[in-house]
Each structure stands twice: as C-alpha cells, then as structure tokens.
Amino acid sequence: MKALSQKRRHPLALLALLVCALLLTGGLYAVATTTNQAKAAENYTASDVDEGSKLFISNCSTCHGMNGEGSDSGPSLVGVGAASVDFQVSTGRMPMQMQGPQAQVKPAQFNEEQTRQLAAYVASLGAGPEVPDEESLDVSQGDAANGAKVFLANCAMCHNAAGAGGALTRGKYAPSLMGVDEKQIYEAMQTGPQNMPVFNDANITPDEKRDVITYLKTMENNTDPGGFGLGSLGPVSEGLFIWTIGLLIIIGFAVWLTSRSA
C-alpha cells in the first residue's frame, strides 16, 4: 500500500503542468512575434513601421481594427504580408469607397512612400508574402510558352485565355489583365485578392509566376493578325458578330425581293 501511495500524483501536479505549458506557449509566441518583427525590419526601417502605424490608425483601423485584428467590417491583416497591402493600396482597391461585391480599381489614395510605410507596418504584425524583387519581374528572363501553359491551366477559366477578364457570380468579376503592372500581377498570384485563390510557391513557383507575366505581356503587345480582336472574348463575341451580320444579310435580301415583287 505504501508503494502505491508513493506512485500517486500530487494534487498540484496537473496545475504545475498547465502552468509550464502556458509559459512554454507564451515564450514561443514571444519568440515568433520578435522573429516576425525582425523579418519586417530586414526590408523596412523602424521609421517606415512607425509612420505606417500612424497611417493605418488614421485610415484603416475603422474596418481592420486598431491593431489589424479585424472586425465585422474588415478581415484581420495579421499575416497577410506586405505584398497584399502593396497590391490593394497601389491599385486603389483599398481603402474602399463603399461596401460591395468586391473592391473596385480606382486611383490610388496613397503615394509610393506611404504605400511602402503601410506595407511595413502590416508586415510587422505577422510574417506573410513579401513584395517581389526586380529579378522576379524581369519578363526578359521569362518563358512565354510555359507561361501560357500555366495560365491556361490555372487562370483562364476566370480571366479568359487572352487575359481579357470575365463575369463571375453575384456581381463579381475577374478583371482584365491587360495593362496591369507586372508587380501587381505577381502580388495577386501570391496573395489571392477578392475571389482569386492563393497561388503560393508550392502551387506555382516563382519562375512560373514570371513566365505567366511574360505570357500576359506578350499577349498585351501582340496585334490581331487574323483581323478584328472582338474584345478577345472568344466564341461569344465571334458568334454574336456572325449572327448579327447573317441577320442583316437575310433582312437585306428580303427587302430586295420585296422591292422587286412590287
């Protein structure tokens, strides 16, 4: 009996184990937070983060919370990364003018320096996709043929094979990719804005992302050797054009026959 009593756990053992677990969790969280802030500091200065914090509180906190934690009006920005902020702000999608099916492209409300500062602050909240470097955007090093394969397999069902965009459900749409900045295309693949899925480096590698951009820029610079482009919307616009011309010919022929009978 004495041996059994010695093997019994002390009443406070469970409490001590719980305290140790909480301390360990807190320590790991502190280390992770410090690492995230240090990672942000590699690309941005402390001044960038500080100025970005001021801009965020003045312009973004109403929807995204004072610390980027999110609210009923906007999602959390912890861990979205600098690339997401750069994309949304540089395209004018954020700040939104009004709630709707999706944020609309409009003139940017912040200049390049302010956009960088906002990105620096959000990057300090948690690790996420970074703004791509110049090498990743160098289309002269890309493979347009491979980019076409990647684009057709992953993007054409929404954006059209020619990148002309298309309608989605419930008032949403996939925008045209013609005339879009290379960096913004790369960031969109990284972060998955609006209804777009996230294509991380495991799904589409950085080289493949560059190939996709090369393909889109090739399409953008190409003329229409076969005649009218018709919006590059494929069989929809082509069929409408053929039906319209065909009906006009039939109507004209009917009018001609009627005039001869008279």
Automatic annotation (TrEMBL):
GO cellular component, one term: plasma membrane
TM segment ranges: 240-258
UniProt membrane topology term: Multi-pass membrane protein
List of residues binding heme c 2: C155, C158, H159
Catalysis: reaction(s): a quinol + 2 Fe(III)-[cytochrome c](out) = a quinone + 2 Fe(II)-[cytochrome c](out) + 2 H(+)(out)
Pfam short name (any one): Cytochrom_C
Entry EC number(s): 7.1.1.8
Subcellular location: Cell membrane
InterPro entries in UniProt: bc1_cytC-su, Cyt_c-like_dom, Cyt_c-like_dom_sf, Cytochrome_c_Oxidase_Subunit
Subunit text: The cytochrome bc1 complex is composed of a cytochrome b (QcrB), the Rieske iron-sulfur protein (QcrA) and a diheme cytochrome c (QcrC) subunit.
Protein name: Cytochrome bc1 complex cytochrome c subunit
